């Protein structure tokens, strides 16, 4: 399924091994890893197209289904569960209805989803005329050709701190940053503080060796401050460069995942950026052009924009906390069938 601006393989949990080591080994073979081209599997040789959703009925009374997101790393024999994915999330509700985990309504269906990676919750609402998922519609999102039915996703406030370090601004490797987590641990950095404009093409930023070194240093330092430990082998936190808007939005972004520059921006990453811009004194707050008429924050990215409904409140401890967070995405079923994974590698000197 395509979910938002990502593409991934969606599985019922019961169709995969329960043991994580066995499950991940199978998924690597299904997606074509660790070959960086993923030529022998379903993956598309890019982090945005090398994703997996594992869905099951939930035992949580406040959720209908559990959603485990797995990032199959391109070029390495690694499967990571250390982050959520808000784009792949857009396909979870329709998948749950398709597989009979949730009954469809006659006009629309809302599916309550527990995101296993973090324990956070979201509700996805989408059209189901006549009790069947309808993927056709007139909603367009940047980074996806054509239009499809809207999937409205509303996120429940997370239990963690919006500012994991307790500060609106921290200094890492001589650079001012804001560490924010509104569903995705994210490090906000003014592009100018790293010697770039923030308007460069993603491929140009990826080829900037000096920038890559600075980003790595900032990400490692921020990860420790955020309580994530050594993040050298992790895909979080994301680093987002901020610059003044150019196309009527609130801010221009360039996001790294963690080395490749995103051609758009992840949903949960955008939610964290939007919340960060609403925090007084945070990095980027002085760059942002916010709409005083409401809580919609338009995040510009390399291929367009993403609108986030976002609000921030003051908690009992005087620190900012997330209020409402919602987004409109689309999803589409691409194929439904049987995948034939590459056979497991033979042990050295072994026979079949």
From TrEMBL:
One of the Pfam families matching this protein, by short name: PrpF
Assigned keywords, A-Z: Isomerase
Recorded GO MF terms: isomerase activity
Entry keyword annotation includes Isomerase: yes
Database matches in InterPro entries: OMA_tautomer-like, PrpF-like
Keyword Lipid metabolism: no
Family the UniProt entry places it in: Belongs to the PrpF family.
PANTHER family per record: ACONITATE ISOMERASE-RELATED, ISOMERASE YBHH-RELATED
Name under which the protein is recorded: 4-oxalomesaconate tautomerase
Organism: Streptomyces griseorubiginosus
